[in-house]
Amino acid sequence: MKRILFAASEGVPFIKTGGLADVVGSLPKELDSRYFDVRVVLPKYMCMKQEIKDRLEYVAHFYMDFHFKEEYVGVLKAVEDGITFYFVDNEYFFGGDRPYGNDTVWEITKFAFFSKALLSILPVIDFRPDVIHCHDWQTGLVPVYLHERFAGGSFFRGIKSIMTIHNLKFQGVWDVKTVKEITGLPDYYFTPDKLEYFKDVNLLKGGLVFADAITTVSKTYAEEIKTDYYGEKLNGLLNARTNDLRGIVNGIDYDEYNPKTDKFLAHHYDVTTFRREKIKNKRKLQADLGLEQDDKKFMIGLVSRLTDQKGLDLVSYMMDEICSDNLQFVVLGTGEERYENMFRHFDWKYKDKVSANIYYSEDISHKIYASCDAFLMPSLFEPCGLSQLIALRYGTVPIVRETGGLKDTVEPYNEYENKGTGFSFANYNAHEMLATIRYAERIFYTKKRDWNKIVERAMQADFSWKVSANKYQEMYDWLIG
Ligand code: ADP
Ligand code: GLC
User: Considering the entire predicted model, what is its pTM?
Assistant: First the structure.
């Protein structure tokens, strides 16, 4: 049995802010349990829902030396779909009403604590992984600590590590003096070939230097991040490690996201019944959100963190134009205030056309994926993107910009060959986006049979985890030898 430990800052169903949580919650159970014993470690945040916290069982606790103090490390656990999740408990570090905050030094401190603690709990829970699979900058110090203080003891010797980049934009960067104090790492690590990054320290870079292998979440993004434009000033390093870097596209949980069984939907459907049944969800959503009730109206959905990554500058620039068309626009998201207010404004201005839902809701998100005709995702960059995969699964035709995982997962419609699962445009340009939305609209209104064929192909595209889980397994096998 090969032992794999996932280390991450969020995971479904325990805590989620974005797609990382979906991946960490769904990939472990897709790995073949006959050969792999996969477990996950997450922080225990105070802001987790009470019903989740009530499920966690106490395992052990001890004190760990961290940042000149002895800090409490509690270990809790819960089993979900056969996978054991461990939780590092410390109310001082993981308090607050959200998993992440805006104070960078504090974020670095708490995830440095998490990274060190998750290694320290392993002898206590008697689980020696063959591979620690780290996700994003919050766990970037794990390969570094593994290299430094833990390599001496026989328990940790030979443990391999993988760093998976879900988003290169976030790196955990601060000045050398402060990070040296927080992490307790010796001077050896603070050089430009290791953690130093333009005179500061970069935690993700530490992970990328010391991990045995690097992955990211689509083939196109794996290439993009080696360029100046997408490389976030780590492209030099990523080029140097190009032989250890691979792109493995994400899947989604086909049980959780299934229009035939989805518990949030009043009307279920599949690829054979969507022509009759999908529309009933649309009708209900129009009523629920106070939009004009009209089966025929082209309805576009957008479910997203509201940040500039998601191409919302283009949307904001074109919103009046979009709303001058015969369509409806349903938004669900939270994030930067300027985007939240922008959507609230257009909701006020175009009452019966635009519905801005500025909050987080699993329930409404599923209803939007199921009800809309098209799903807009014009991202500036997109490592993989899960929303378009969910939209495809629900027969809601994605309109995307050709970047990262969007390019790899949405096949552009070809009117002449009757191919494709969505609509796409190449450049980060508002007029190109508008033209593409209008093209989709035209096919919807004037070539309904062709539109339905697109929906059918979208629903038949397979983005379950099967193929990608296999690629991770091959990588684990290769690393462990
Ligand atoms: P990212 O991880 O960059 O946010 P992804 O497309 O990979 O983008 O994943 C986003 C996930 O978060 C999807 O499952 C999407 O449905 C969900 N999501 C985003 N915003 C909300 C929201 N306001 N309410 C419910 N789910 C949301
Ligand atoms: C990040 C990326 C998103 C990706 C997700 C899961 O949040 O922004 O594109 O799908 O991680 O890998």
Answer: 0.97
